[in-house]
């Protein structure tokens, strides 16, 4: 049976969702973050050298990286291609969009979000009182001058894409939408309700209505992506 090493409030939620969409049975091994550092426990290093999640085990294979895992599951188990447009010609717009957004989620969208998380933790970290104003000034300047504009750039791009169609690869839900869910939810947890991004808000609402998403959340626990910055 497929085994998923799942870290609470993490990217591995997407793997559970993908498995639920495919209707595949799986064993769930859950790990808890350190409440002080928000890091994964060392026990995950026994599964994968980087000690990260998600990690999927299947028939002797040990796979990491959410995008690679979703592609593997689609290739191996989605024989009717319900979650990918690979039956289309290689140059088909839907297939190109699918590949782009599947990799964009981690390659482009997540780095500024992770930087925002790091600087939020720096800003709120315990430190001597005479250092705190300097640390907060550096964090605020970095957010205002670089990270904030980068986040806006990416959110504007994602909003525009969902203005073209209901889903990232076109009018049909695919694994690219599963992969894109995490950065959008992370952005929503950072700046509230995505007030200026109606298409992104609608996307978050649509995915929450999917029965497979709800089953994954019931098994893996609800996401609290804002907790890392508190």
Can you describe this structure?
- By secondary structure, the protein is an alpha+beta fold.
- Helices cover 53% and strands 9% of the residues.
- The protein has a four-stranded mixed β-sheet, with helices on one face.
- Helix 3 (93-124) packs antiparallel against helix 4 and helix 4 (132-162) crosses helix 6.
- It starts with a strand and ends in a 10-residue tail after the last helix.
- The mean pLDDT is 88.
Mean pLDDT: 88
Specify the biggest β-sheet.
Answer: 4 strands, mixed
> What string, H for helix and E for strand, traces the elements in order?
EHEEEHHHHHH
Bulk shape: globular
Strand content: 5-15%
Q: Which properties best describe this structure?
A:
alpha+beta; 230 residues; 53% helix; 4 strands; four-stranded mixed sheet
Helices, strands, pairings?
Layout lengths: L1 E6 L5 H10 L3 E6 L23 E4 L2 E4 L1 H12 L15 H32 L7 H31 L12 H17 L6 H11 L2 H10 L10
Parallel strand pairs: 1-2
Antiparallel strand pairs: 1-3, 3-4
Helix pairs in contact: 1-2, 1-5, 1-7, 3-4, 3-5, 4-6, 5-6
């Amino acid at each position: 049976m497929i085994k998923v090493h799942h870290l609470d409030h993490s990217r591995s939620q997407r793997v559970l969702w993908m498995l639920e969409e495919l209707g595949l049975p799986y064993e769930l091994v859950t790990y808890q973050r350190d409440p002080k550092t928000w890091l994964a426990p060392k026990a995950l290093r026994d599964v994968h050298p980087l000690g990260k999640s998600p990690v999927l085990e299947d028939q002797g294979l040990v796979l990491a990286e959410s995008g690679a895992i979703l592609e593997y599951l689609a290739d191996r188990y989605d024989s009717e291609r319900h979650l990918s447009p690979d039956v289309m010609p290689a140059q088909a717009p839907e297939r190109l969009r699918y590949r782009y957004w599947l990799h964009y989620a981690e390659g482009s969208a997540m780095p500024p979000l992770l930087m925002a998380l790091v600087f939020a933790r720096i800003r709120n970290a315990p430190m001597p009182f005479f250092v705190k104003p300097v640390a907060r000034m550096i964090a605020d300047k970095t957010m205002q001058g670089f990270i904030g504009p980068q986040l806006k750039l990416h959110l504007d791009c994602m909003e525009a894409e969902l203005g073209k169609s209901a889903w990232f690869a076109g009018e049909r839900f695919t694994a690219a939408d599963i992969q894109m869910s995490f950065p959008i939810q992370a952005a929503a947890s950072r700046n509230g309700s995505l007030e200026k991004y109606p298409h992104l808000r609608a996307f978050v609402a649509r995915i929450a209505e999917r029965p497979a998403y709800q089953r994954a959340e019931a098994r893996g626990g609800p996401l609290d992506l804002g907790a890392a910055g508190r």
